[in-house]
């Protein structure tokens, strides 16, 4: 099976190289039939005209799965001030209808949490489901700035979009082991329905969908209250579902509780296609220095393989990664001195 590989910008090619080496090792040792097809797509090649959005989308539609490295360069911006890299990222999400952004918040073995009460593996283990195709971010390709005096962006919430993201969240909860605290399966609707009608509409539709899942507990929480809950009692959480921008902010907060963005991986999923990527940025300040932490890229690769039905290969990746971390192999952001290359080779040896 061919998989589209987007090498991105900054540290993107370095950490993607780690992921491809692992895929190739799985093929060599265990017969995994995945062929990474690499593309030099990123903010730089979009800016210099080598790629345009239509061409990128035409290529992407040829594949069932996309493995994407971080993209972006803060210096490369559109006339309106937005980052060019987001044109690629949001265009893929919106035009390919990758409506479910799945962001696990999981404390991995060998990684320390800044929350002093949570330092056992999987003592924090929940998933944020972020609606990916509408919400406030759907205004990225629109919006209005009038006479340098007024700026307007609109939030869009539809019945179709909210129904399917709510169903996705409940179906995911059915497959989980529940919250780390008590094993109860639940989905929390996160919104600001006390302030905005669009969020009240989101909550109403979520409630309607929840009535079809008697075995899953439906809960409700305002976004600011959830931010506090994620710090104080993350072990009570199982699945969270929310609008696009709230999901973006809360998932980055969640990443901070499990070691940082270097451990934050994700999938953007539709009914028949998926794009998998680390949550963190392209970190141009450390690009080319061989010190980037490839864990999120590697876990995104594992997530992709599991989604494609190659669960046994996903487990091999995770076991090999966790054993490397437990043995003391750590990149500088983890408090060690391992290079990206050495970190990767340590994982390969465990395979």
From TrEMBL:
GO terms for molecular function: 3-isopropylmalate dehydrogenase activity; magnesium ion binding; NAD binding. Homodimer. Its EC number is 1.1.1.85. Coiled coil: none annotated. The keyword NAD applies. PROSITE patterns: IDH_IMDH. It comes from Acidiplasma aeolicum. The lineage of its organism: Archaea, Methanobacteriati, Thermoplasmatota, Thermoplasmata, Thermoplasmatales. This is 3-isopropylmalate dehydrogenase. Keywords: Amino-acid biosynthesis, Branched-chain amino acid biosynthesis, Leucine biosynthesis, Magnesium, Manganese, Metal-binding, NAD, Oxidoreductase. Its cofactor is Mg(2+); Mn(2+). PANTHER family: D-MALATE DEHYDROGENASE [DECARBOXYLATING]. It holds the Pfam family Iso_dh. Residues 2-347 form the Isopropylmalate dehydrogenase-like domain. One of its GO terms (biological process) is L-leucine biosynthetic process.
């Amino acid at each position: 099976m061919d998989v589209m590989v987007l090498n991105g910008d900054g540290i993107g090619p370095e950490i993607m190289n780690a992921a491809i080496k692992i895929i190739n090792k799985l093929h060599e040792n265990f017969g995994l039939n995945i062929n990474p097809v690499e593309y030099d797509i990123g903010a730089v090649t979009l800016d210099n005209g080598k790629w345009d959005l239509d061409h990128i989308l035409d290529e992407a539609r040829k594949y069932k799965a996309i493995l994407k490295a971080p993209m972006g360069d803060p210096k490369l911006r559109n006339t309106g001030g937005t980052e060019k890299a987001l044109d690629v990222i949001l265009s893929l999400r919106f035009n390919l209808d990758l409506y479910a952004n799945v962001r696990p918040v999981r404390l991995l073995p060998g990684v320390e949490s800044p929350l002093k009460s949570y330092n056992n593996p999987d003592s924090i283990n929940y998933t944020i489901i972020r609606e990916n195709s509408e919400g406030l971010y759907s205004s990225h390709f629109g919006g209005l700035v009038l006479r340098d005096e007024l700026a307007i962006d609109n939030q869009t919430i539809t019945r179709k979009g909210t129904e399917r993201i709510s169903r996705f969240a409940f179906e995911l909860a059915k497959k989980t082991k529940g919250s780390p605290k008590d094993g109860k399966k639940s989905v929390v609707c996160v919104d600001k329905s006390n302030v905005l009608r669009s969020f009240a509409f989101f909550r109403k539709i979520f409630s309607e969908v929840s009535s079809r899942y008697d075995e899953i507990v439906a809960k409700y929480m305002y976004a600011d209250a959830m931010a506090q809950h994620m710090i104080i009692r993350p072990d009570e959480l199982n699945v969270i579902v929310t609008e696009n921008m709230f999901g973006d902010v809360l998932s980055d907060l969640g990443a901070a509780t499990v070691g940082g963005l270097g451990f934050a991986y994700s999938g953007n999923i539709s009914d028949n296609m998926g794009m998998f990527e680390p949550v963190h940025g392209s970190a141009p300040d450390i690009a080319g220095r061989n010190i980037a932490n490839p864990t999120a890229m590697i876990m995104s690769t594992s997530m992709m393989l599991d989604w494609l039905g190659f669960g046994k290969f996903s487990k091999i990746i995770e076991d090999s990664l966790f054993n490397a971390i437990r043995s003391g192999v750590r990149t500088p952001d983890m408090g060690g001195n391992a290079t990206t290359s050495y970190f990767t080779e340590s994982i390969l040896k465990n395979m």
